[in-house]
Amino acid sequence: MKTIKHKVRVTIFITLASLMSTACMKEFLDLKRDKSQVIPRTIQDYQAIFENNTMNYYSSHLLGVIASDDYYVAAEQWQVLSNPIEKNGYIWADEVYQGTTVSDWNRAYEKILYANFVLEGVTGIDETPANKSLRDEVMGAAHYFRGVNFFLLAQLFCRQYDATTANEDLGLPLNTASNTNVRYKRASLSDTYNQIIYDLEKAGELLPHTMSLNTRPYRAAALGMLANVYLQMGDYSAALHYADEAITLAPQIFDYNSIDVSPSAPFPRYGRSNTEIIFYSHMTNAAILASSRLTIDSLLYESYDENDLRKQAYFSVNGERYTFKGSYSGISSFLFSGLTTPELLLVRAECHARLGNTGDGMADLNRLLSHRFRPEHFEPVADDISQSELLQLTLSERRKELVFRGRRWHDLKRFNKDEHLAVPLKRILDGTEYNLPIGSEKWVWPIPPDVISQGDIEQNPR
Q: Mean pLDDT over residues 161-171, rounded?
């Protein structure tokens, strides 16, 4: 058995290396599995495929972080960027990629390919009383990874979900088989979200209720992601339901009073011992987001109260310049993008605010903020807060809590649909102004040209 597991792991790493070295998506889709090498025969063998960190690392958030408004770079720093995606993405240029491999697209479909392969293999193993628990867990993990990655792709490469147009709007190629010879056209956005919800619901049914490792998904992760999906869709009742269920399973909040927030890396590496992390993942690093290059937006920095421990935990001050140090990865070059209990508290608080449940929303905010302020400086949200004030406060706390976790782009896209919340973006470099207006087609990233060149895939307007 150990030999078989070793073969699976080795081959998966070879596959990953092949994917990393490909110059175009065609090679990715044409990749063949060598069945003389890949011989998983047991559920444990299929589980081993998920144990190489591929599923936890390089999450597809990078384009959104590069393009969002939490930071800026000086013109001289921008000029020397060598990666065209970083340089062009920062100013929302018409031509973004310039022949460069698009990591956000390739990494997500790589994970989807693994998930499909595992689902097909484990489905072919008969369920028995002895293997049911592990069989359910591995299949649930595969559904989780597939659903999450379709969701992340949709936030970058599809329009914001709108129930009135979702049947006509373009979604994703829904690759649901591991046969890389099959070519998929873009489904509708409605079908794309139906697939995401189906996968996450299946994951919620199959995954265990507890998990000792935050690098493996469990039921709370699936329910929490469903809450995020429904929040993005504007279905606040459903988002509230799933956030509530997930928080019941994962109620822990990491108290910032229990750590020294002053070091350059205040949080434990890879999220170890961070009790509020439900599922750990981090993004690919990027030169433009290096602490030596980016500067935090001053209005964002100043929005934190002086007694808010996040201000010290998340940011470093260098003269008049603020940089980010607060990744839950514990490594400045890897931005944490996983799921936490506080994020779900903020989802639930927002849903309560939008649905008029001000008392419940206020309780969620107080619960979070009591773990972010020194006890002697914590002031609960006022009992007489109005519904609109509660919503504004919740969204402000959401931005402050989830800074540089890949959520800001998702939020900006959904805010585009609300005239009271929509935020146009602007950059200024050497006196030249670049704008991303509300409702612009540039809120949707182009499909990578190498994917378009295969045919049958419609490009997004730019």
A: 98
Task: Name the residue among 156, 53, 63 with its Cα closest to residue 114.
Answer: 53
What are the DSSP calls for 314-360, one per residue? Answer: HEEEETTEEEE---TTSSTTS-B--EEHHHHHHHHHHHHHHHT-HHH
What pLDDT is stored for residue 65 in this prediction? Answer: 98
Q: Hey, what CATH topology would domain 213-219+235-423 get?
A: 1.25.40
The encoded tokens of residue 318 equal 């260098």
C-alpha triplet 428, 90, 454: angle, nearest 5°: 145
What's the rounded Cα separation, in Å, for the pair 122 and 117? 9
SS (H, E, C) 40-90: CCCHHHHHHHHHHCCCCCCECCHHHHHHCCCEEECHHHHHCCCCHHHHHHH
Q: Where are the domains of the chain?
A: 1-71+102-207+439-462, 213-219+235-423
Closest to 273 in 3D by CA, of 195, 332, 210, 214: 214
Task: Measure the CA–CA gap between 360 and 354, rounded to whole angstroms.
Answer: 11
Distance CA 52, CA 103 (A): 18
Taking the CB of residue 176, how many other CB atoms lie within 10 A of it? Answer: 17
Amino acid identity for residue 326 in this structure: G
Distance CA 139, CA 225 (A): 17
Per-residue pLDDT for 334 more than 90? yes
State which H helix or E strand residue 199 sits in.
helix 189-206
Q: How far is CA 253 from CA 68, 246, 248, 362, in A?
A: 27, 13, 12, 17
pLDDT at 1: 35
Confidence of residue 37 (pLDDT cuts 50, 70, 90): low
Query: How far apart are alpha carbons 296 and 68 in whole angstroms?
Result: 11
CATH of segment(s) 1-71+102-207+439-462: 1.25.40.890
Asked if 69 and 408 touch (Cβ cutoff 8 Å), the reply is yes
Nearest Cα to 173, choosing from 153, 155, 203, 159?
153
pLDDT in tens, 348-371: 999 999 999 999 999 999 999 999
**Fold match, 1-71+102-207+439-462 / 213-219+235-423:** yes
Return the bridge partners of 428, or none: 433
Confidence grade of residue 51 (pLDDT, cut at 50, 70, 90): confident
The distance from CA 33 to its chain's CA centroid, rounded to whole angstroms, is 28
Query: CB atoms < 10 A from the CB of 119, how many?
Result: 23
First-last CA distance in the chain? 52
Pairing mode, strands 277-279 and 339-340 = antiparallel
Angstrom distance (rounded) from CA 390 to CA 398:
12
